């Protein structure tokens, strides 16, 4: 799907997009704007995404490998010990029946071995020979037992983590072709915002400047600079956007200014920069006035600008609705799939809008969940998706948009 933005109609749409459609547009926009793959050393690949399928470059294991410490024997015993094979050394054939070599776990099994007798199942005779009874199943791994040469181990779009790095190394890779985590910048708009101290005298603490980069990292992006609070003037908005564009950010998240109030300058600033709107308002509550636009970057290419509403919970709704799919597309990862959750209490609809309702792990809508509040979010696992014009009752199984939390952060 290639996004066809519109500059003739500054919104690119005739009205708010349905929530599911907005997610799809955001993902396609990320795919279209994704940077080309890069080749990086294994040690630098963590957090990136496989740009190509991971194929085995050899059988795994590449040669018969002992699973135990013991003796590799040929023929019936007792056996005369003629040497030792350790991991990393060449295993020479056993030339005749009645001989064996001491063998270590992970060592190559000598050709013509008929069995391996575990150390604990063996006895040294007075003449130095070894006797014992092999177990009924072979004590070594055959070549290709884990994978065959050329077999696909992981598809393109797989997130690279330590397990993937280890697997690639075991196959003989020194580098990986990956899509790097997309670079981001965060612009915080609002003269009313404080960056330290207690709120008061008509001013409030900025909760999004410190938290949005952390959300972006959990979504798989590389969190960049936070600029702001940006003065509530058109000139300051344009300057801040230009600074982020000049820094090469692939995705800019702005907070506040997505409506058309007297100090909402995001839309005029985007117009000055030649932006093409991809999404401009979404049929969702909370978070309705979110947007996604494509802005030309100095020197070529485009940057995606995600306009997050200023209310904290609405901003997170925009993050999981538009930014998460866009980051997945930019990263070369699949569209984020939505798990389900069974509600244990009713959740009301929000008219003709999709309702994203904060719920806990028991499927209960949390309290203190107004769009301006964050207290409920600290106890939630994500947003239950309540379709338009449809109340949900206890026992309903609905889609869940998980909050991008690490495993140890789950409430």
TrEMBL record:
Classification via Gene3D superfamilies: MoaB/Mog-like domain (3.40.980.10), MoeA, C-terminal, domain IV (2.40.340.10), Molybdopterin biosynthesis moea protein, domain 2 (3.90.105.10), Molybdopterin biosynthesis moea protein, domain 3 (2.170.190.11)
Domain MoaB/Mog intervals: 185-329
Cofactor(s) this protein requires: Mg(2+)
GO biological process: Mo-molybdopterin cofactor biosynthetic process
SUPFAM superfamilies registered for this protein in UniProt: MoeA N-terminal region -like (SSF63882), Molybdenum cofactor biosynthesis proteins (SSF53218)
UniProt GO cellular component terms: cytosol
EC number: 2.10.1.1
Catalysed reaction, written as an equation: adenylyl-molybdopterin + molybdate = Mo-molybdopterin + AMP + H(+)
InterPro entries, alphabetized: MoaB/Mog-like_dom_sf, MoaB/Mog_dom, MoeA-like, MoeA_C_domain_IV_sf, MoeA_linker/N, MoeA_linker/N_sf
Region (Disordered): 120-145
GO MF entry, a single one: molybdopterin molybdotransferase activity
Transmembrane parts of this sequence: none
Pathway: Cofactor biosynthesis; molybdopterin biosynthesis
Keywords (A to Z) from UniProt: Magnesium, Metal-binding, Molybdenum, Molybdenum cofactor biosynthesis, Transferase
One Pfam family matching this protein: MoeA_N
Family to which this protein belongs: Belongs to the MoeA family.
Free-text function comment from the UniProt entry: Catalyzes the insertion of molybdate into adenylated molybdopterin with the concomitant release of AMP.
The protein's name in its UniProt record: Molybdopterin molybdenumtransferase
Organism: Rugosimonospora africana
């Amino acid at each position: 799907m290639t996004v066809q933005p519109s500059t003739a109609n500054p919104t690119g749409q005739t009205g708010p997009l349905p929530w599911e459609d907005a997610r799809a547009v955001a993902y396609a926009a990320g795919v279209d704007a994704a940077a080309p793959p890069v080749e990086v050393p294994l040690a630098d690949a963590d957090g990136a995404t496989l740009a190509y399928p991971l194929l085995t470059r050899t059988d795994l294991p590449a040669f018969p490998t002992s699973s135990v410490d013991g003796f590799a024997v040929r023929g019936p015993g007792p056996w005369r010990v003629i040497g030792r094979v350790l991991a990393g050394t060449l295993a020479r054939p056993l030339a005749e029946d009645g001989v064996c070599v001491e063998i270590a776990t992970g060592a190559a099994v000598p050709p013509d071995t008929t069995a391996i007798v575990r150390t604990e199942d063996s006895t040294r005779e007075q003449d130095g020979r070894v006797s014992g009874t092999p177990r009924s199943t072979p004590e070594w791994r055959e070549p290709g037992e884990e994978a065959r040469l050329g077999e696909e181990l992981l598809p393109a779009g797989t997130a690279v983590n330590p397990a993937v790095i280890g697997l690639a190394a075991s196959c003989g890779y020194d580098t990986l072709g990956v899509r790097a985590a997309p670079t981001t910048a965060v612009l915080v708009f609002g003269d009313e915002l404080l960056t330290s101290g207690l709120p008061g005298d008509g001013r409030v603490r900025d909760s999004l400047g410190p938290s949005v980069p952390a959300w972006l990292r959990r979504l798989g992006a590389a969190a960049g600079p936070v600029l702001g609070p940006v003065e509530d003037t058109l000139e300051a908005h344009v300057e801040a956007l230009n600074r982020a564009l000049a820094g090469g950010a692939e995705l800019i998240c702005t907070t506040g200014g997505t409506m058309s109030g007297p100090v909402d300058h995001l839309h005029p600033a985007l117009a000055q920069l030649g932006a093409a709107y991809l999404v401009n308002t979404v049929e969702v509550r909370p978070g309705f006035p979110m947007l996604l636009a494509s802005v030309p970057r100095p020197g070529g290419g485009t940057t995606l600008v995600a306009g997050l509403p200023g209310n904290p919970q609405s901003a997170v709704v925009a993050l999981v609705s538009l930014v998460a799919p866009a980051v997945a597309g930019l990263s070369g990862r699949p569209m984020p799939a939505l798990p389900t959750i069974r509600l244990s209490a009713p959740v009301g609809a929000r008219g003709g809008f999709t309702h994203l309702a904060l719920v806990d792990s028991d499927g209960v809508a949390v309290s203190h969940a107004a769009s301006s509040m964050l207290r409920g979010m600290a106890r939630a696992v994500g947003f239950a998706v309540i379709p338009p014009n449809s109340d949900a009752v206890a026992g309903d199984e609905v889609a869940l948009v998980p909050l991008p939390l690490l495993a140890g952060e789950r409430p």
